[in-house]
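Dear colleague,

Thank you for sharing your sequence with our group. We've completed the structure prediction you requested, and as agreed, I am returning the results in plain text so they can be pasted directly into your records. Please verify that the sequence below matches your submission; if there's any discrepancy, let me know and we will rerun it promptly.
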Amino acid sequence: MSTSHGMLEGQSMTRPPYFNGQHYGWWKNRMENYIQAEDYELWMLMKNGPLIPMKIKEDGTKVKKGT
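Please find the predicted structure tokens below.
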């Protein structure tokens, strides 16, 4: 979508997009782009979750390291 759907605070490169309760799909896409541009590693953590170190036991099962 090329229009801003009535953004109340205007568009800014330094502030995240404002969600006014309408047009969630448009806002979600803008928010994803904003987070990716700020810190791509943060985006990957949000998308995939944290990396949990695992080890494989003798019987082949995976468990968290340190347990």
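Summary note from our side: The chain has two helices and two strands.

Kind regards,
the structure core
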